[in-house]
Amino acid sequence: MTETRRPRRGIIGYGTYVPYYRLQRSAITDALGTGGGRGTRAVASFDEDATSMAVEAARRAVRNLEANGSPFALDALYFATATPPYLDKTNANVIHAALDLPSAVFAADMVGSSRSLGGALRAAMGSPHPTMVASADLRSGRPGSTDEASTGDAGVALIFGNETDAPVLAEPIASASATAEFLDRWRLPAWNYSRQWEERFGEHAYLPLVTEAVDAALKQAELEPSDLDLVLVTGLHARAVRGAVAAAGLGAVTVGDDLVAVLGNTGTPHLGVVLASALDRAEPNQTIMTIHLADGADVGVFRTTDALANYTNGSPVATQLGSGTDGLDYNTFLTWRGFLDREPPRRPDPVAPAAPPSLRSQRWKYGFVGSRDESSGAIHLPPQRVSVKGGAVDEMEPVPMADVPATVVTFTIDRLAYSLSPPVVAVVIDFDGGGRFQCQLTDVNPDDVSIGDRVTMTFRKLSTAEGVHNYFWKARPAA
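Above: the chain sequence. Below: its structure as tokens.
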């Protein structure tokens, strides 16, 4: 009897998101006389959180997949984060809606610690269907602490599928884990920072687990350490991360850049971000080992394929790290993180969006899907029943606009509107191919805005009121 070969399964697409703002660590030292250090950390803007960053990473993963000639379809979406904007509500549903996915696509959170990513990856690799793992964290620490300086904010999305879905870029060939219960890092739900036990104890607990998991993965893959082309080590326990390679007997292998010096340690998504950065530069038929330390050790071994040579990433990690601005004021950073309670504009506080209209306009509010008149071609933002050209009624078709570039036709600088980062820049934009819309412009110096600027849409948090996050779309300068 002929044995049927199972189709190859692995990473078929990926995308990352690094926020526009960077905080120079020296700015912390200048302000407090302590903490800080060298390099920069990525900082999510006042209108971003873990969910919005995961949306941006997921959108880039989808664009990359489609730009490389593969259709986008999902069976499931998992969101891994240690800093969920909601509890008792599924955050992954917002990502689901922003991607305008069919209701049949399953969405679920895996939250609570940076090991949540490992659980999501296991679920995706074990599924026979196309599955996306999206992850992001909004990292914080008390002013002057090591966490404040060493952590960072970012998002990543990895799409797993079979070779029948799309060319496989990196195939997992082994995985192993070692788990133990010990007190390393913890945070209660009401805290906005974590606490950590003494570092030497954590190192003592982690390193034997690393050795156990690495040995098991190598045995499963039938490899020797010398067969590895690259080893990537991540985790929030810096001392254990530094000692992991030697403890596992991998001292002679090439260790990849963990990006902490320029990005910061982004927590839950960090393994995915570092792996994506490695794939941006990897060549076919390379063997990459990943080691992640979080309440244990999780080890994976991936082998890149010939398809990687023809894969184009529209937003490589290195390109994103090289853009943005590193001039963020430390007091502004503290304000965005809630450590500095500053006087707001003397205007009414924002009002929470109501649930019924949000549900009725879900494709518009979250997916930025407008309507197009089938007879005249006029595009309506927001979607309308009656066309502005010809007056046709209920002769509309949906038109996704989130990925359509646009041009600023006029703008105003509002210094009185409520915002955690005044002034508010309001713009009127014309989309390529039709459609005009008024919205806020984010990630920009107000002095640099001009008519004719090219912009793209980005998923953001307009405000939070009465415990409800009001997500919608803003424009940002085109890269």
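The chain has a mean pLDDT of 94.
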